[in-house]
Amino acid sequence: EVVEWVNVLSTFCKKLYKHGSVPILKNGIFFEKELWGTSRKKTAILFGGGVESLAALSKMRNEGKDYCLVSLGGNSWPGSDPKVNEIKFLMDQKISNDLGAALIKIRTNFREILDDKQWYPFLKERVHISNAALFLPFNIAAVLPVADYFEIESVASGNEKENNCTTELFSFSDVSTSMLQRIFPRLRYESFFNNLWKIKIVEKLFLEGPDLVKYQYSCNKNVGQRWCLNCEKCFRNYIFFKLYNIDLCSVGFDEKSLMKNLKHLIWITRRDIIFDLYKHREYTEMRKAASQSQAKEISVLFNSLFRFFFVRKLFSYFIKFWGLR
To answer: For 242-271, how does the pLDDT look when each residue is reduced to its tens digit (9 = 90+)?
Structure first.
């Protein structure tokens, strides 16, 4: 296993850093098996409140599995800062109470002290240290100290196929999540939905767990409210709700306020579709679903969004030519 982990670390280092490096493993604390209980059976769901985590919750519930929810947050954590996003943690507590599921609350200054700017001189182009390597492993590691107390045998999170369309290394991609499946003795990691595009995960949640949609919390730019109604994420979720006839009031969504920002939302989403491979792929799959939908206003929106589709094509050829992909 030591040799295996050295190879894993070597792979991470090659993908992250500009210059060559050699990982060194040092002996740490050895845990006797007797220290761990034998009755572990729960799965701890890393619960952010978005579509993927709600779909993961729906999956565990429908399969009759024993689970608990992990609510992570801290200073400078976009969308999960207790000082700025109190409603996020109120939503976590509400779903815990309503479902009768244990809620593990973990607060950390992880995002505050891990400043990407300090890492830029050492990392490859377009690699952010938190998202590329540390974000998911840190979340899993945060559960370790309480794993035995809460009888947790595995940690799970919902992911998506689009995660493979981003930078060279991303902590939620297939490559990374496969490396993390055995991150610690007696604690497994499970990654759900890596083979599904987000629109399919949305469909899965809305059809298989419709009672969970009212708890959705997906905006990470809001301040003192559930949705900022002025970012690409809010716009994207508005499209999801319309496609599947979700009552906007049930998810705390103010359609009139969003419509006031429509020009801005279309502009920033067009920009993302052109320059961000992740967003381009995501909206392409959404467009396919919209073409089969009866919601005419959504079809009109997509025609507007993809009016400059050819620009995206030109940009893809450009980055391929210059070897930036």
So the answer is: 888 899 999 999 999 999 999 899 889 888
Is residue 228 within 8 Å of 234, Cβ to Cβ?
yes
First to last CA, the chain: 33
Question: Which helix H or strand E contains 79, and what residues bound it?
Answer: none
Query: Residues 121-151: pLDDT tens digits?
Result: 777 766 777 776 677 888 888 888 888 888 8
Tell me if the pTM is above 0.85: no
The secondary structure of residue 184, as a DSSP letter, is: B
Q: How far apart are CA 40 and CA 42, in angstroms?
A: 6
Q: Is 189 helix (H, G, I), strand (E, B) or coil?
A: strand
Which 3 state secondary structure label does DSSP give 173?
Answer: coil
Residue 240, both tokens? 């999801």
Q: What angle do CA 120, 122, 128 make, to 5 degrees?
A: 45
Instruction: At 148, give phi and psi (nearest 5°).
Output: -70, -40
